Amino acid sequence: MFAINEVFKGIHSDDTIELCFLGGITGEYTVQIANMQYPKLDEKGIYFVKSLPSQYANPLYGWKQGHFLIETDPHGSKEYILTADRQLVTGIRMQEEPPLGLSTGVAIGVKTTDRLQMEKSWTAEEFRQNLRSVLKDMK
């Protein structure tokens, strides 16, 4: 069960949501899907869900591409936004044309940097504000 603090797009009136991922544990058997990154218990994040009524192997857009982590700076109190692969997010922009080639595991238009450049990273609130702005401009 996931707690919902904000809905960026679409409608969901409950304060929780249940997302089902393929795989699991039953008795002594465990089924895991290769390259599936399951949200961890008590993880804080921003999740982009494909569709609530439909069932998918992974309900998040592009598997890892719709999975962002929120982590608190260990030396302060700021919350930073990271990709599912733990890259710091430094920007988002809408692109007219999708890039050619294979996916890098990061959603199109999301800019990232490595963990050593935290000062360039967006806070979770900056990510939320910019996401709201991008979605507003799309209307």
The structural domain count equals 1
Spatial arrangement of strands, main beta sheet: 5-6-7
Structural class by helix and strand composition? alpha+beta
Mean pLDDT: 86
Query: Spans of 5+ residues with little confidence (pLDDT < 50)?
Result: none
Walk me through the structure.
The protein is of the alpha+beta class. It has one domain. 11% of the residues lie in helices and 24% in strands. Strands 5-6-7 form a 3-stranded antiparallel sheet, with helices on one face. Strands 1-2 form a two-stranded antiparallel ribbon. A hairpin with a 6-residue loop joins strand 6 and strand 7. The radius of gyration is 16 Å and the shape is globular. The two termini are 31 Å apart. The mean pLDDT is 86.
What's the gist of this structure?
This protein is an alpha+beta fold and 139 residues long. The protein has one helix at 124-138; strands at 2-3, 16-17, 24-26, 29-31, 45-47, 67-72, 79-83, 88-92, 110-113. The chain has one domain.
SSE blueprint and pairings:
Elements: E1 2-3, E2 16-17, E3 24-26, E4 29-31, E5 45-47, E6 67-72, E7 79-83, E8 88-92, E9 110-113, H1 124-138
Antiparallel strand pairs: 1-2, 3-4, 5-6, 6-7, 8-9
Which descriptors would you attach to this protein?
139 residues; alpha+beta; three-stranded antiparallel sheet; two-stranded antiparallel ribbon; 11% helix; globular
